[in-house]
Amino acid sequence: LYKSKINTMIFRSIIFYAFLGLWTIFMGIICLPYLLISHSYIRKPINLWILGIFKLLEIICNITHEIRGRENIPKYSVLIASKHQSAFETFALFFYINKSIFIHKKQLFFIPIFGQYLKKTNMISINRSKGTASVRKMLKESKLKMSAGYSIIIFPEGTRKIPGDKPNYKTGFIGIYNETESEILPVAVNSGHYWPKHTFIKTPGRIIIKILKPIPAKLKKDEVLKKVESVIEKETKNIT
Fold this sequence. Notes:
- With about 240 residues, the chain is of the alpha/beta class.
- The chain has 7 helices and 7 strands.
- It has a 7-stranded mixed beta sheet, sandwiched between helices.
- Helix 1 (about 1-30) runs antiparallel to helix 2, helix 2 (about 45-60) crosses helix 3 and helix 5 packs across helix 6 (about 170-180).
- The longest helix has 29 residues, at about 1-30.
- The radius of gyration is 18 Å and the shape is globular.
- The chain starts with a helix and ends with a helix.
């Protein structure tokens, strides 16, 4: 019975990625005119693409999702600090939080189709080969973006974590926190149980994205790092 269940999940996961590839190519082609007009319109086709991913997960993999704590999202721009267990939360946070953007590696621009749309979204790119100069540029752009009403999504651990792994929160986000003097919106997730790291196999279940109460601005470095980690880790463990 267990082997049959695994085989079914493998089959469903293969079908999911096949349809995801077709859906991405289809949307990438029919939405090409959006690359020629103002970036203010590009969010609509991207959200439609993400909505398609949600539907594919639900129909093919039996994975649904729920967003809790949406009442905690401020009307103003904030720094969004999320637990990172899968690709799912990158889609979900962008989809559900208006005017949210990411800081990403500049090399992502070179990915066919995806890179062109990413560039059009007017997010913040960072060229790591330029060292401290790129960090200064990123901090300046972050301040400008947040002044324009954009919220910035960051993953404080820097990479996806397997559920139950020891947390490893880095101090990189604190520079943005200090520069922008913004509040931090913590986010807990359980997505790693259903969209696991290091495997393409999807597990049926319900992904929970839990948006928590904002953490105040202008806290000291050690205090804000400890607060972000403790709040996110506690809520991630308690998601049921």
